[in-house]
Write a structure and sequence with these properties.
The chain is an alpha+beta fold and 158 residues long. The chain folds into two domains: 59 residues, no CATH class; 68 residues, N-terminal domain of TfIIb, CATH 2.20.25. 34% of the residues lie in helices and 25% in strands. Strands 1-2-3-4 form a four-stranded antiparallel beta sheet, covered by helices on one side. A hairpin with a 2-residue loop joins strand 3 and strand 4. 6% of the residues are buried.
């Protein structure tokens, strides 16, 4: 038996290939291979993928919200004591106020009292800041030496 080669008869190989390329339905069922996913399979895969993505995004959103609620902005005490540092005279007084637009809902109080007859004053500052568990108090004490402060006739502060 003599085998025919492709070189001897080029139409031997080209004819069946061309027939199947022009008429794809002519390919026998056993030769058809599964080359793509069906539309239902693609839709199910996309549904699973998007459910997983939205679950992760929801989890991230909740975690960021929880972290944001735990974050407390530190209060700047300098606004409360700035005017006291610049002055040369102090007197015993209790004052209170707020920190304005920079820290909304934050209030402060300060007590100034003489602790020594030579003009040494102590300033106790308390800042009240609303937080997750209620109002949080931040306290600070400051010693200021102001010998030019007015004194009472008995040698004490006025």
């Amino acid at each position: 038996m003599k085998l025919r080669s492709v070189i001897d008869d080029p139409s031997w190989v080209a004819e069946p290939v061309l027939q199947f390329a022009v008429q794809p339905w002519a390919i026998p069922a056993r030769q058809k291979s599964r080359t793509a996913f069906t539309l239902v399979e693609v839709m199910i895969a996309m549904g699973i993928f998007f459910m997983a993505i939205f679950t992760v995004l929801d989890l991230m959103s909740r975690n960021l919200g929880a972290a944001r609620s735990l974050k407390q902005t530190p209060v700047d005490f300098t606004e409360v004591v700035y005017d006291l540092v610049l002055t040369n005279r102090l007197q015993e007084v209790s004052e209170s106020g707020d920190l304005g637009e920079q820290y909304p809902d934050v209030t402060w109080s300060r007590d100034i009292y003489l602790i020594s007859t030579n003009g040494l004053f102590q300033v106790d500052v308390t800042v009240f800041q609303p937080g997750a568990g209620g109002i949080v108090e931040h306290k600070m004490s400051l010693l200021l030496y102001r010998p030019d402060s007015p004194m009472r006739p008995g040698g004490g502060p006025r």
